[in-house]
Structures are given as C-alpha cells and as structure tokens.
C-alpha cells in the first residue's frame, strides 16, 4: 500500500506539469485582479468614507458566478483594514452560515469574542453583538456573501435587523455589503431591506474571452512549469468559459483539471484532448452537485422525469405530476401542489438539469415538453447517494 502512496507523492513532486498547483485552487486569492479595476475603484471610493470616520453607505453587489465579486470585495476590504486603524470587517458566507444564530455567532467570533457551543438564545447573541459594537470605536463592515441562499431558506429577518442596527448604537458605525449572483432575488426582498441595502449598487459583468485569457495567462505563469502549457490551450479554456457565461472560476478549473489529467496520463504538456476531458469531468461534477443539493420534492420531481422519460422522449407537466403523486404515495411523504411542481420544473430547467420547452398544441392549448438534459446515470447516482428514501425507490 505504502508504495502506491509513495508513487503518488513522487509523481506530484516530480510533476512535469505543475510548478505550483495552489495558484489554480479556488481559495487562492490573487494579489492582482485584472479587468475589475472599475469595480475596485467604485468599491474603494464608497468605503473611503471610513477615512473621515464616517460609516459608508450599504452596498449591494451582484453579478453572475465567477465574475470576481468575492475576490474583489475581500481584496479591497483587506487593504482598507491594513491601511486604516479605525476600521474592521467581517466576512460571512451565508450559504455555509445560513441561520440567524450562525450569522450572529460568526460576527461575534470575527470581532474577537468566543461563542459557547450551546445554551445561548439568538436574542442573547444579538445582545452580545450589540455590546461589542457599542464598545468599539471602529467602523464595522459586515459582508454577507451569497445572501440569496440564506434568504431563500430563512427569510430576510436577519437582514432587516442588521439594516436597522445603527439606531440601537451610540453612533452609526455598521455598514453592510450584500453579495448575490441571483439578480432576480432582489425583487423578492422586503422593500425596506432592499432600499436600505441598495444605497449603493455595484454590478459585476461577465468576463469576455480576451479578459479570461489574460486572467488565465497570469495564473498559468505561476502554476505551470515551462513548456507544460502553450497559449492555444489557454485560449481554448478561456473561449470555453466565455461561451458558458464568462465565469473565471470555471476557466481556472478547466485549466487546473486539464493539467491534472495530463499529469495522470503521464504527459509532459497539456493537449486539447485533456481540456476536452476536463470539460466533461467538470460538467459531470457540476451536475452531481446541483442534483445532490436539490430540495427533497425537487428530487422527487426529477425522479419522476427520469422514470417517465425511460420509454418515451418527452413528458408533459401533467404526466410528471401523476408520477410524482404516486411516488409520494409509495414513500408515504407529503405532497405539493401541481402548481408547485410546475415551478420546480421551471427551476430544474433553469439550472440545466432538464429541458422544458413550451409547445402549442393548437386547440388543446399550450403544454410543456419535458426531457432530461443530463446523463441519466450521473443523475441517478447523485439522487441515491444523497437520500436514503430515494435509494429505496431504486432498490425496490
Ligand atoms: N479579475 C480576476 N483576476 C484573477 N482571478 C479572478 C478574477 N476574477 C475572479 N477570479 C478568480 O475566479 C474565481 C471566482 O471568483 P469569485 O469567487 O470572486 O467569484 P464570485 O463572483 O464571487 O462568484 P460566486 O457568485 O460564485 O461566489 C476565484 O478563484 C478568483 O480568484
């Protein structure tokens, strides 16, 4: 066994491909962010109020995934903290810390105080947070990343509370930065929260192929050995990611995974075939992740579609609902309305798991033609590996 591990370690150490793979990992924060100068400038000029000892306006940041929202925000906040004494910030990813309790606990811990594991109510945590805020003379920026995920699960109560917090302090010193990649999400917020959070707005447009190429080139120099990659491979990764929606994370992933595949195959350089394999591997992982994290009834609707399209090409919403209903009966679970199932179908279509095309059937009115848009085996794997109840359906 140990030889296997030695082999892996040796090949990693002697990799003909990577000089420093870490530069391509998602959590690496680069110290330069090309093509985001405008956003950096705008964010810095809003935050510059802290120089005068005043609280900056709240800021709402939105843009599609991988457009540099998190990287730019962290980059600017870090520099401000280094340069300005009476300033501090808290960064919370609310997909991970998605309850009011967790968010308050994170704020308190980020401000340097401990939170015991159990035995404290949310109200008590809130009081403790206020106490910390009252005792500091610093301006505090609270950054809530991926706020749509949290609000969808638990509502915007905590956002409302935080937007009002200055009225409970001795002076205005807390500002919020809310980040989301779901533009439509803004419309669902309580209007008071929305107007308060959007005192300033910052939009992150997708990167185009040239911009992605530039970003990748700068990383490739740090990450790869000389001769392991050429410009045409970088252009290809940039073009593929730009075609998707200008997502820098995706472009960097493509480059890294293509490098890993080349390494695994003991090649000395990355080829277009490696990039193609990487694209398929990443897409497979994405599909798996999306399906694994779906809510239970969305998974059941997907199971119905997988079953229903087994022997025919497409299904209608009504047919999906019938199958869904019988599945809930088999499993003895509660049932949602046909209207909700229709919404779920739209959601699955939006994330690219199924296609739901509206077709006009003349005097029979309009209906949807629903079909699976991803590899069936991956979909089934993601469903049964993440839910025992669904695994039981396939084992029947
Ligand atoms: N201009 C840039 N230069 C270099 N790297 C970048 C740039 N923009 C983004 N990246 C890199 O791309 C990846 C994704 O960026 P980031 O996490 O900031 O995206 P995001 O807009 O916050 O996405 P999401 O909404 O999915 O969280 C990170 O690894 C980041 O370092």
From TrEMBL:
Where in the numbering of this chain does the Cdc6 C-terminal domain appear?
302-383
Q: Which UniProt keywords apply?
A: ATP-binding, Cell cycle, Cell division, DNA replication, Nucleotide-binding
| Annotated GO MF terms | ATP binding; ATP hydrolysis activity
A single Pfam family, by name? Answer: WHD_Cdc6
All residue ranges annotated as the AAA+ ATPase domain in the record: 55-208
Q: Which InterPro entries match?
A: AAA+_ATPase, AAA_22, Cdc6_C, Cdc6_lid, ORC1/CDC6, Orc1/Cdc6_arc, P-loop_NTPase, WH-like_DNA-bd_sf
Q: Which residues bind ATP?
A: 67-71, 207, 219
Could you mention a single GO BP entry for this protein? Answer: DNA replication
Q: What does this protein do?
A: Involved in regulation of DNA replication.
Family as reported in the entry's similarity comment: Belongs to the CDC6/cdc18 family.
> What is the protein name given in its UniProt record?
ORC1-type DNA replication protein
Task: Cite the source lineage.
Answer: Archaea, Thermoproteota, Thermoprotei, Sulfolobales, Sulfolobaceae
